[in-house]
């Protein structure tokens, strides 16, 4: 019982169940769950005050230090991860981008160098593959796995990144061979380009027409096509940032048939609508993201249904921080005004909205505390499933002996403290939050990373220094792979049999 930290008087909430017990921690790792653990001399004791203790949040889709065209990321690794811990996230997985014509591994190393020694929480990367050459598919995917990067993201839209169907098959086959998970941004590139050109010609260039150019059908078609491609290869695929009910249902259908298909959505699709893009003047640019926010209330209902019924594997923030009051951020859409319209040009607005600082409190409040999902489901969506899918479980994503001592302590139902979300209280580096003035019914009271209190919610203070976070070398997914196979499927792909 050589604990150096004991958390008492709380209820430990895991994805499987919850228990009133103490947590014994030594050297940043949980060593014991039990009643009335003996307190050795010099051991620190934290009183959970009857609250709920959930595993530290895992935000498995964030963009940090990643520029988009001419737009500069408003978060570096220090500010981005500061925002993470202030919202109960203790692990983030961000992106490293392969530039077309270049290799993948040097890109991963360059992004790693941006983060190394500068983070407030633990971190890892997915590699974005924009150029799946034979070299990438045959060699670099294996090198990625060796480095601890066991997932890739591919895009079906954006001129500089979009893959065609054949390239998608190449990546899926390679990922299957090497055991990676493929994340897909599913939107039909040609429809978007065709629509956007016509909108601009007619002078419809305001931020809201970002949404007009990307109707649901754009996401729906690409999602179904991606699912078909995944089925051809029978390879695990996660559809990222699903925004609406049709794509949710397509994923559900594939899952019901037993395909290794996973889904991700984000708080903004569950809580915000397209009206946000119609804010006066150019303000709507703050809520330009892709896929866009949807206007039909049934879409939000469909997203909550998918969150509750298990269609969505993970809830990520898709934190994509571009300042509003900054010519290298959202305002670039005003400056780069090809149509000379004072409302700007939606095509030049960087896509993406901030969310790293608010993801878990929004899900806890609007999900659990408003009765839409159970606490167990919260833990799955917020931590456990991402840890499993991305090869970090049970180090991350659960509270059990051997796990990292990453916890969020919430207040008990009787002592909840509601908070109005305000930019001035955010710790991220970006200059606005799309959730300004929204109320949440509670906020993390304490956030603990590997046994260290890193955020104090009573005073809204960050308690650790940059460099407190560690790189996580990830293993392969522990969620199901191709049907009717075990791990032996890796290296055993026989394309002539399909
Ligand atoms: N895709 C993302 O994953 N994030 C931000 C914008 C986008 O298109
Ligand atoms: Zn190989
Ligand atoms: Zn995307
Ligand atoms: Zn993203």
TrEMBL record:
Its cofactor is Zn(2+). It is an enzyme of class 3 (hydrolase). CDD domains: D-HYD. Pfam families: Amidohydro_1. Carbamylation allows a single lysine to coordinate two divalent metal cations. Its EC number is 3.5.2.2. GO terms for molecular function: dihydropyrimidinase activity; metal ion binding. Residues 52-454 form the Amidohydrolase-related domain. InterPro entries: Amidohydro-rel, Hydantoinase/dihydroPyrase, Metal-dep_hydrolase_composite, Metal_Hydrolase, Metallo-dep_Hydrolases_sf. The modification N6-carboxylysine is found at residue 153. It catalyses: 5,6-dihydrouracil + H2O = 3-(carbamoylamino)propanoate + H(+). Gene3D superfamilies: Metal-dependent hydrolases (3.20.20.140), Urease, subunit C, domain 1 (2.30.40.10). Keywords: Hydrolase, Metal-binding. One of its GO terms (cellular component) is cytoplasm. Belongs to the metallo-dependent hydrolases superfamily. Hydantoinase/dihydropyrimidinase family. This is dihydropyrimidinase. It comes from Dioszegia hungarica.
């Amino acid at each position: 019982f050589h604990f150096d930290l004991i958390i008492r008087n709380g209820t430990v909430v895991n994805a499987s169940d919850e228990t009133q017990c103490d947590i014994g921690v030594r050297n940043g790792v949980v060593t014991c769950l039990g009643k009335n653990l003996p307190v050795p001399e010099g051991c620190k004791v934290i009183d959970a005050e009857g609250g709920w203790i959930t595993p530290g949040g895992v935000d498995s889709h964030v963009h940090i230090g990643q520029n988009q065209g001419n737009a500069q990321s408003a978060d570096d690794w220090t500010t981005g991860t500061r925002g993470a811990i202030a919202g109960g996230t203790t692990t983030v997985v961000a992106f490293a981008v392969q530039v077309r014509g270049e290799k993948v591994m040097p890109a991963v190393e360059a992004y790693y160098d941006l983060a190394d020694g500068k983070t407030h929480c633990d971190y890892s990367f997915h590699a974005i593959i924009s150029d799946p050459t034979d070299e990438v598919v045959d060699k670099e995917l294996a090198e990625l796995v060796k480095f601890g990067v066991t997932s890739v993201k591919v895009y079906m839209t954006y001129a500089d990144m979009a893959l065609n169907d054949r390239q998608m098959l190449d990546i899926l086959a390679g990922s299957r061979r090497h055991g990676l998970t493929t994340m897909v941004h599913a939107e039909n590139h040609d429809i978007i380009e065709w629509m956007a050109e016509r909108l601009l010609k007619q002078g419809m260039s305001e931020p809201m027409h970002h949404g007009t150019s990307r109707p649901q059908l754009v996401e729906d078609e690409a999602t179904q096509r991606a699912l078909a491609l995944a089925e051809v290869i029978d390879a695990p695929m996660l559809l990222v940032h699903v925004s609406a009910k049709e794509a949710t249902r397509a994923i559900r259908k594939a899952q019901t048939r037993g395909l290794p298909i996973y889904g991700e959505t984000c708080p903004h699709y569950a809580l915000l609508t397209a009206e946000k893009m119609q804010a006066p003047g150019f303000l709507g640019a703050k809520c330009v993201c892709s896929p866009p926010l949807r206007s039909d209330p049934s879409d939000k209902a469909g997203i909550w249904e998918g969150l509750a019924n298990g269609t969505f594997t993970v809830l990520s923030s898709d934190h994509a921080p571009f300042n509003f009051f900054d010519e290298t951020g959202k305002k670039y859409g005003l400056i780069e005004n090809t149509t000379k319209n004072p409302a700007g040009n939606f095509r030049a607005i960087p896509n993406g909205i901030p969310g790293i600082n608010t993801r878990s409190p929004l899900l806890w409040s609007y999900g659990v505390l408003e009765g839409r999902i159970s606490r167990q489901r919260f833990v799955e969506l917020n931590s456990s499933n991402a840890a499993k899918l991305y090869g970090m479980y049970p180090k991350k994503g659960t509270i059990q002996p051997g796990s990292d001592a990453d916890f969020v302590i919430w207040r008990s139902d009787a002592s909840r403290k509601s908070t109005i979300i305000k930019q001035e209280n955010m710790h991220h580096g970006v200059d606005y939050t799309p959730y300004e003035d929204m109320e949440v019914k509670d906020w993390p009271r304490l956030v603990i990373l590997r046994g260290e209190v890193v955020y104090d919610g009573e005073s809204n203070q960050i308690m650790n220094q940059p460099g407190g976070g560690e790189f996580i070398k990830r293993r392969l997914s522990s969620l199901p792979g191709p049907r009717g196979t075990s791990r032996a499927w890796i290296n055993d792909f026989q394309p002539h049999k399909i």
